[in-house]
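Structure in, sequence out. Go:
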């Protein structure tokens, strides 16, 4: 093949790839849009966690003198188990995606439903944790009661904002999964759509690992 023909062929290949259509760069539009959404969401979570880390560093004492963040939460009895449940739900989601690719609709529906249950369990335990924190006097503007003035005002505020923002994502994910489960039970969910749902759910799980480490453990 002459050099001119090679250049023309390369140009045709590049133009075809950038031309859009249903699968630009062999990636379906729906999956590409999900990746772009997750990328923008990752920047948002990164900004929140970076801001939280900066507050902790500049505060010197966090959350208060002689206190640790873990002192205010049930890390071993509630937060640890809910983290484990969320990670397990990521595994059930992976099984559902694999089953969808094989065309095993029954297994797909079963494991999508298990993932929904895992998400609901996580949200229920998070609501319980929030309730306990509020009873101790935590508010968006700071602590009230006996601990008022002893705790950094931004401690409860950052906790509520970060975990609440993530909780909103989990709630959206559960609704998304529930719709996909119903569609799969009726044979109307493609393997690609289940995989895209899995991308979102795995992202939500991964973000929680960072939140759990930074807010509860360090």
């Amino acid at each position: 093949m002459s050099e001119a023909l090679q250049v023309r062929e390369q140009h045709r290949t590049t133009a075809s790839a950038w031309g859009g259509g249903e699968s630009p760069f062999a990636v379906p539009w729906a999956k590409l849009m999900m990746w772009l959404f997750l990328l923008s969401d990752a920047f948002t979570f990164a900004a929140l966690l970076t801001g939280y880390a900066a507050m902790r560093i500049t505060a010197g004492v966090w959350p208060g003198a002689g206190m640790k963040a873990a002192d205010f939460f049930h890390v071993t009895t509630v937060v640890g188990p809910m983290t484990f449940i969320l990670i397990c739900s990521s595994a059930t989601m992976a099984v559902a995606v694999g089953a969808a690719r094989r065309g095993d609709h029954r297994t797909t529906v079963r494991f999508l439903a298990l993932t929904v249950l895992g998400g609901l369990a996580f949200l229920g335990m998070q609501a319980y944790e929030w309730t306990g924190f509020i009873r101790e006097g935590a508010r968006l503007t700071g602590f009230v009661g006996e601990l008022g003035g002893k705790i950094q005002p931004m401690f409860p505020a950052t906790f509520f904002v970060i975990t609440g923002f993530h909780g909103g994502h989990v709630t959206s994910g559960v609704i998304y999964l529930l719709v996909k489960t119903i569609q799969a039970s009726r044979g109307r969910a493609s393997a690609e759509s289940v995989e895209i749902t899995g991308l979102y759910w795995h992202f939500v799980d991964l973000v929680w690992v960072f939140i759990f480490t930074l807010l509860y453990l360090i």
